Each structure stands twice: as C-alpha cells, then as structure tokens.
Amino acid sequence: MRTLRNHARNAILVSSFLAATLSACSPPPSSGHDGDVGTIGLALQVAPGVTINTISWSIANATTAFTQSGTVNVQNSNTIRFQVGGLPAGAGYTITLNATSADGAFTCAGMAGFAVTAGMTSTVSVMLTCVANGNGSGTVVVDGTTAVCATITSLSVLPLETTVNSPIALSASATAGSLTPMFSWTATGGTFDNPASATPTFTCPATPATVTITLTVSPSVPGCTSATQSVAVTCDTLNPTFTNVYANVIGARCTGCHRPGGGGVTVGMLDMSTQAKAYMNLVGVTSAGTGAGTSGVTCAAAAVPRVSAGSATGSLLYNKVASKLTATPPPCGSPMPLPATAAPLTQAQVDLIGAWINGGALND
C-alpha cells in the first residue's frame, strides 16, 4: 500500500508514462516514429494524506469513438506512473482517472485533454482531486446483471454513386453478445433483393435521387440505444457520350456476339468488338443483317440506318434494344440483346442510347 503523504508533491514534479501494457518498469519510449500511433506520458498530482492502492483510467476520443481503459496498481510504488502506447495519432483525447482511498474515506477523480503525435510520447498532467465521503456514510452491495448491446461493427457500400436502376453491393457485420444479430435494411428509394440479409444487393430507383440507406441491427436490450447506421448513395444518369454507351451497354452486353466469328458478325454483319469499330459500323451505316429473326424480315431487306444521328426512333440500334424491353416487334431481325432468354437492357441503358443518338451521335 502506498501512502501519498510526503510523496504527493514529488509526484507533481515527476513525469511518468502511459503504455499499452501497464508496467511501472516499462523502458523509455523510442524517440523514432512508428506509423500513425503515439504514446502519452502522465504526471499525477494528488492531495496529501490520501492512501491509494489502485487507480482506474480511461482514454476516449469523441471524434473518432476510440476508447481504452484499465487499472494500475500503485500499492507498492513510490510514485504513480504508467504508460499507454498504440494510441492513434490525433487531437481531441481525454483521460479520466478515478480512485478510492484504501479506507474508503476519499473519492478521487481527475480529467485532462491531450493530443497524440504519431511516433512520439506526449506528457499529460492531471490534477487528481480527492473529496471526503463525509460522516455517516454507508455501504451498498450491488447485485447487477450484464447484457451486450447490439453493435454494428462494419458497413460497406460499393459503389456510393451509380446510375439509376443499377445495383449497389451492401455488406455489414454486427454483434449482439450471445444472441444472433438480425439485420433490417431500409431506404428512401429503390429496392433490396433481401432486406434481412447481411449482404443484400440494393437497386437504385428509376429516377435520379440521393437515397439514404439505413441498417438496423437487433435484438436490443433495455438500456441499449438502437443499433442503426445510415449512408447516402447517389443514383444518377450517365452523360450521354459514346464512350459511356460503349462501356456500359455495347461492351457489356453486345460484344459477346458482335465480334469476329460471332453470330452478330456472320449473320448480323455488324462488328462492334472495339469502340472504334462500333462507331464506324453504326453511325450513318445501313443495316445489312441476313437473319429474319422473330420479325420475319431481314435487316438487309429493311435497309434502315443503324444509327441516324439526331433521331433515336429512326435508328435500328435504339429500336432493337427498346423492343425487347417493351416486348414489341423490332423493325427487322430479332430484339436485342440475344439470345432470346437474355435479360433486356435496363430502361436507363436504353435511355442512355437514345440520349446519345438524339444528341447527335457524336464520337465522344
């Protein structure tokens, strides 16, 4: 047991250190830099006449939600000193000290703010103020129970910005103590494939919007706040350039067939294997496909422009992809993309093609 009667003033003058493993015998901290963490040192000032065996400490940062706590045994120490390392660099930290005198007559507490510099040791001075508990004080025995609140430990959203009707991959993890966490996703727009999954896919709404996605994790227990976390995603439209048309539609859905050796070239007579070839073979070029498809008319016989700059409805490309989306017959051949079992383009993709054509079908 250490009595801080004659040592209290000395302790005011002595700088001591706080480290990740609490040890009064810790070696001096390195003067070199070690990544993005730092160490703080502590000097305590205690009112004379108070005998303390154990001090409880806690470190918190309200900005980053960082917390760390522990106790230090000073029963056999002439001075009070301890060191905590591995603190993320930054400002806004506070350290709180609490202790009760060995005879229970005094309650001591102190608090100080500090900042951590990466790779460096920061010294923190804390005034530990002790208050007498007063005459007639008593003792209570606390018989309590514990419960673990539901907590969201991670939330990933990939990507945060995409086009309307496009998917966004969500992933979350959570803990609820011994209970199995249950997930519930909600949003101000759009849809989820499985809102009760930890890894659902969210689909943006059909109109541009900033959508707030919220995750709630249960079960919770009395005294726990709701475990919720929200994130805003942007669902918008792509700029109607040919680069976007090729990257998001033609390259993604058409080049499997419209490449050398594919049916889109041997029957459709249209090579779109590269962006340059696609533009050269589309804009201002008359259709030449030899397959009658579901329409019963070959595109060579129809002889319509594949892309008529300024007129989406007068362009075979637009009409072919729109016909599959609306389940209407195309002017010639079959609706695209093939095969017949393939999903149609989304409305946003069809609209992107239409906007590019109506904007002049530029090679941009």
Low-confidence stretches: 1-34
Quick one: overall form?
A: elongated
- DSSP strand (E) fraction? 25-35%
Total DSSP E strands? 17
Helix-residue proportion: 10-25%
CA-atom Rg in angstroms: 35 Å
Distance between the termini: 80 Å
Integer average pLDDT: 83
Largest sheet: 9 strands, mixed
Number of helices in the DSSP assignment: 7
Question: What is the H/E order?
Answer: EHEEEEEEEEEEEEEEEEHHHHHH
- The assigned structural class equals alpha+beta
Can you offer a commentary on this structure?
With 364 residues, this protein is of the alpha+beta class. It contains seven helices and 17 strands. The strands form three sheets. Strands 1, 2, 3, 4, 5, 6, 7, 8 and 9 form a nine-stranded mixed sheet that branches. The longest helix has 13 residues. The protein is elongated, with a radius of gyration of 35 Å. The N and C termini lie far apart (80 Å). The N terminus is likely disordered.
